[in-house]
Amino acid sequence: MLSVLVAKRLVSRVCQESLRPAVVELVTTRGYKGEAPDDSRGDLIEIPLPPWTEKDGETMDIKKRRLLFQSRKRGMLENCILLSLFAKQYLNTMSEHQLRQYDRLINEPSNDWDIYYWATEAQPVPDVYTGEIMDLLKEFTKNKDQEQRLDAPNLEYLDKGSQ
């Protein structure tokens, strides 16, 4: 009986060890280092991002639909909720100039945390993103009406106003 228990524990431990990744703490980046100090680790893989370019020839309706989707599908849940609710409230009333500002804001920075920190005023906004849209986003982020913002709205609901 004792040998059966020892065998089960041994097999269980071997199985658990085989599921662990062989390389621990291999960090990859997408061409963005932010404020992190240089660490001379040779295990970093630098993948340059293509530069952001404005999409020419896009109708206002198509641009709004694309921005609506991109507001919802972010790299982090906090921005998914924040930007999709912001788009729900403001996207359909934005001018062409404001749409271009919003497009650049959500698509040019390669790190979603930067957008979040700027919107919550945890970090200063770079001059290139300062403008009407960033001011609206900062004000929206303050949530003065104390709305419950626990989840992003449905895409169907967001799309009603653009049809």
UniProtKB/TrEMBL annotation:
GO biological process: mitochondrial electron transport, succinate to ubiquinone; mitochondrial respiratory chain complex II assembly; negative regulation of canonical Wnt signaling pathway; negative regulation of epithelial to mesenchymal transition; tricarboxylic acid cycle
Membrane-spanning intervals of the chain: none
InterPro entries in the record: SDH, SDH_sf, SDHAF2
Keyword annotations: Chaperone, Mitochondrion
GO CC term, one of those recorded: mitochondrial matrix
Taxonomic superkingdom: Eukaryota
Localisation: Mitochondrion matrix
Keyword ATP-binding listed: no
Primary localisation category: mitochondrion
Family assignment from sequence similarity: Belongs to the SDHAF2 family.
Task of the protein: Plays an essential role in the assembly of succinate dehydrogenase (SDH), an enzyme complex (also referred to as respiratory complex II) that is a component of both the tricarboxylic acid (TCA) cycle and the mitochondrial electron transport chain, and which couples the oxidation of succinate to fumarate with the reduction of ubiquinone (coenzyme Q) to ubiquinol. Required for flavinylation (covalent attachment of FAD) of the flavoprotein subunit SDHA of the SDH catalytic dimer.
Oligomeric form and interacting partners: Interacts with SDHA within the SDH catalytic dimer.
Protein name: Succinate dehydrogenase assembly factor 2, mitochondrial
Lineage summary: Eukaryota, Metazoa, Chordata, Craniata, Vertebrata
